[in-house]
Every structure is written in C-alpha cells, then in structure tokens.
From TrEMBL:
Pfam families: YkuD. It comes from the Bacteria. Gene3D superfamilies: L,D-transpeptidase catalytic domain-like. InterPro entries: LD-transpeptidase, LD_TPept_cat_dom, Transpep_catalytic_dom. This is Peptidase.
C-alpha cells in the first residue's frame, strides 16, 4: 500500500517494549501502537503460551468489513459484538475481536516446522476488549491490540508482508 511517496513494507513487534511499529519502504515509522504479548514471555515451543520470535510474514487476514468489536471463534465471526454483559456470560473466553492477522514463521526449526510452528500455533495479531491493559504482557501467545488501532492498521496491511518479532 502506498502512503505519500512510499509503500508500507513491514511490521516490527518489540516484546520488551510491548510496541508494534509499521514501517514504509524508506524505513520511516508510519504507525506505532501499544500491544500486549504473552504473559509467559517469548518462546517458540508448541504449548508454551509464549509469543514466538524471529522472522514471520502475514499469512492470512480475517475480518475485513466486520463491525468493531466483532467476536471471532475458530477464526469465524460469531455474529456477537463484544460488550460487558457478554463478558460476564462467558468469563472463560479468550476474546478475539474485530480482526485477525494470522502469522507464519519463516525460519525452519525456529518458528516454522515441527514443535515450533507459529502458523499451527494459531499466533495472531488480534483485537481484545478495551478494558484489557496494553503495554503489559497478558496474552496466551498472540499479539493483542486495541480494536480501533487494529482496524486502522489492518487497512494498511497485506498478506505476505514481513513481520519481525523480537
């Protein structure tokens, strides 16, 4: 996607700073967002509950055109719109809201392949309830964002775009 004279080219996700940054092809930051990565820290192993590091790319983008706060289960919209009453009715849910940006690892044996596969671990960038804090690692491995931020970012992304998580 072209913004001004430059194309949006890649994402950087900094686990230590809990930030996601969008860069153009001249390496100028054109978007900077607070995120929430894994409560269990960084790591690539299946079942670890950690956010995987390394070189990734956007494999699938889900939810274009869905309303803000749309609820997803199994990567499909349920038709529900998140609200406090729904949260009370379903306290066990790990809410995936608004959009899903499904990541795939590029590094065999690091974040791709048996035992470490980011895509098979269902690692996404996704929306979370606005009551959840950002800047604090609290997810089960995914990268959580504010819904309005994610919807704005989603419009600037494309499948195949590089994502570096460190």
């Amino acid at each position: 996607m072209v913004i001004g004279d430059s194309a949006v080219s890649h994402l950087l996700i900094d686990i230590a700073l809990q930030r996601l940054q969008l860069f153009d092809d001249t390496f100028i930051c054109v978007g900077d967002y607070s995120v929430s990565t894994a409560r269990n820290g960084a790591g690539e192993r299946d079942g670890s509950g950690c956010t995987p590091r390394g070189q990734h790319y956007i494999r699938v983008m889900i939810g274009a055109g869905q309303p803000l706060n749309s609820v997803f289960r199994g990567r499909r919209p349920t038709g529900e719109i998140y609200n406090p009453e729904l949260a009370i009715d379903h306290p066990e849910r790990d809410w995936i809201l608004s959009r899903i940006v499904w990541l795939c690892g590029r590094q065999w044996g690091v974040n791709r392949g048996p035992g470490v596969d980011t895509f098979r671990r269902f690692i996404y960038i996704h929306g979370t309830p606005d009551t959840e804090p950002m800047g604090t690692p609290l997810s089960h491995g995914c990268v959580r964002m504010r819904n309005a931020d994610l919807v704005a970012l989603f419009a600037r992304l494309r499948p195949g775009m590089p994502v570096l998580i460190f």
